[in-house]
Amino acid sequence: MFRNGLSRANWPNYSSYADRVRELHVTKTARGGRIELDPNTLVHASAVANSQIGSGALLPKARTLEFDFQQAPGPVLLLHLISPAVRHIIITIPGRFHEAASVVFSTLAAMSCSVKLERFDVTILNDGSRASTSKQGPQSILETNIAKFVASQSGLQRLRIHPIDSLSSLKQAIGPLRHLRALELAFKTSTSNSPLQDIITSLGSCIDLEKLHIQGPLNLGRQNFSVIQPLLSCARLTNLDLSWLGSITLNAANVEEMGKAWTKLESLRFSLVGDKMPVDLLINFAASFSPSLQSLTIPLDVSTVERISPITTYVPSHDLKRLFTGSSLQESHIQPFAELLGAIFRPGFCIISSNGTGGQRGSREPSSSYDRLSSLLSLIWRVQNLTRHKVQNELGACDRA
After folding, report:
1. How far is the C-alpha of 62 from the C-alpha of 88, rounded, in Å?
2. Centroid of chain to Cα 12
3. Within 10 Å of residue 363's Cβ, how many Cβ atoms?
4. Which residues contact 386 (CB under 8 A, 6 or more apart)?
5. Mean pLDDT of the chain
6. What is the pTM for the complete model shown?
7. What torsion do the CA atoms of 228, 233, 236, 242 make, to the nearest 10 degrees?
């Protein structure tokens, strides 16, 4: 479409097409069902339209804009396309465009009243072309201006930034995002506990938050339960990854408090590196989070399993089906651990020794000990089932007599 540029005679035709476009994707490869335009065409259109930001956008009704600026001519193109109709921006910024993109996001932050995003996905590349991670370097300035733009989007529901050099530029941006439902961040440099705590404190005001996933250099320090307490106000959480915080010390009362706050939680992940948690906390997780929790990643201290008394209290019905643990199993631990799991869980439950991220493809190493554990667990469930049927038959016979 208009691959040879636009003359004034072509402009009416372009306008008729532009009003129909709802999504624009300028990326390396075309994907089915989406409109792909030659970025050079848009440059020609920009020159002809001489549009003003927001009011004379080239695609006035487009709701989704996606740019991989490894392919497109430059971030300034975004200013000619964005309009009040846009709700979702997906953008990849290579190193050579950090300075230009910084100017673009500074401009967009200044015109926040004209932009009402619901979703924002940005990938910042460092390809070595003038990209700098120093405090006054192009990438640092870019991150600061992206944070200012994010802060201006109070209606933002989903935010993804990969990667960012530090969390400090975002800690003040997250506070105004009261409607945020999903946050995915990746940060590259180690940071102190202060920015981590600031981020969590800010997220505590995002009461609509459903998904939180943050990646970065592992914090090797030990955290208390207090570090995650601000998140207890996020009652709509369904997917929560706390592994980026490192080792967290919990007790039964803490687990019960989390279960009462996060009644919709389906997946919960702690770091498998560092201090282990008491294995009997599994009982508290199963009882406190029932019936919604389906997947749990937790570092267990299996060495104490032989000292746990038989479970005599009622464990409520629950849907916890997948347990990811980094624990190694000694031969002496297998039977008592299987007996504990058999008392808490029901057939269909699966214990996996990987970290639950998908990167290990459900690895069950060391396979021999975990295979024996699974076999023994299946046997325990069969015995439980036979015993249950036997008791039911005897009760039925008594009733008939």
Report:
1. 9
2. 44
3. 13
4. none
5. 79
6. 0.81
7. -10
The token duo for 230 is 């601000």
Closest by alpha carbon to 1, among 25, 48, 51, 35? 35
Exposed/middle/buried for 19, CB within 10 Å: 0-12, 13-18, 19+?
A: exposed
**What are the pLDDT digits (tens) for 81-121?**
888 899 999 999 988 889 989 988 988 888 766 789 999 99
Identity of the residue numbered 387: T
Distances (CA, A) of 231 to 210, 234, 284, 387: 11, 5, 19, 43
Cα-flanking dihedrals φ and ψ of residue 268, to 5°? -135, 130
Identify the residue whose tokens are 């009882």. Answer: 287
Q: How far is CA 271 from CA 115, 147, 163, 200, in A?
A: 38, 27, 20, 17
Torsion of CA 303, 304, 308, 311, to 10 degrees: -60
